[in-house]
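Let us work through a complete example step by step.
Step 1: write down the sequence.
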Amino acid sequence: MTKPPLTLYLAAPRGFCAGVDRAIKIVEMAIQKWGAPVYVRHEIVHNKFVVDALRDQGAVFVEELDDCPDDRPVIFSAHGVPKAVPAAAAKREMIYVDATCPLVSKVHIEAQRHADNGLQMIMIGHEGHPETIGTMGQLPEGEVLLVETVEDVATVQVRDPARLAFVTQTTLSVDDTADIVAALQARFPAIIGPHKEDICYATTNRQEAVKAMAPKCDAMLVVGAPNSSNSKRLVEVGARAGCAYSQLVQRATDIDWRALDGIASMGITAGASAPEVLINEVIDAFRDRYDVTVEMVETAKENVEFKVPRVLRELA
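Step 2: predict the structure and record it as tokens.
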């Protein structure tokens, strides 16, 4: 039986970013240096496949520092942690390695600098997301106010409208965030923003590629985890950019083939914590069912690389 033809548009950039790459490397090198088990506070990155692979190598994932023994190394996830966490690890004389993405650390430094200048902070982010918890936890309670939507801006209660600054989570929708920033600037004309946008290059680039790809596609799949903020934003960006069927899948087994019946063009991208092996698995699943022609939709080239901490570069 002849397979129906399918044009498969592949977004570039997609998948791993430099911060995720570095975080995974940190866990692998820590196991190499200190042996198993090495403890990791929270999923190192939001991807089950990656976490399971590291668990097989000897990583133990826990939610709190209290779940770690004093005598084994602990790694803090790429999303960042409140200041109290490394302080508690130091008090217990633990070996700890911070795998916080350098672009998240930049936001932490920014928040601290504004606070040192006497400004109250507003954070644009998602409540309960580890990155938001980590950033808000850089300053004393009440010093960082969270807004998630334009509506939140209208009701946020500040200490002094003339002494405010804002930061953002690094994995938000670029367009939604621009609307919230505009609302903040309209209500608080004196508010100070970041020198350079907090939303990271990888989030921005992946959203731009989806915007370019979506109008060409009957359907679009984002390979990523349901708890991955940047992956969920890609689904929303695809739908908003004109692709009627935009869905998140963790891997090929999650594809709803009945929903894709009759399509002639398909878009594929992946969140920043999804490895290329899962993207290839999805492409292979389409090759099994269709006569596939792959076309790349490239909107940027990435060559960013972040060094791992010195303690790991000095491997014995």
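Step 3: interpret the result. The two ends are 58 Å apart (CA to CA).
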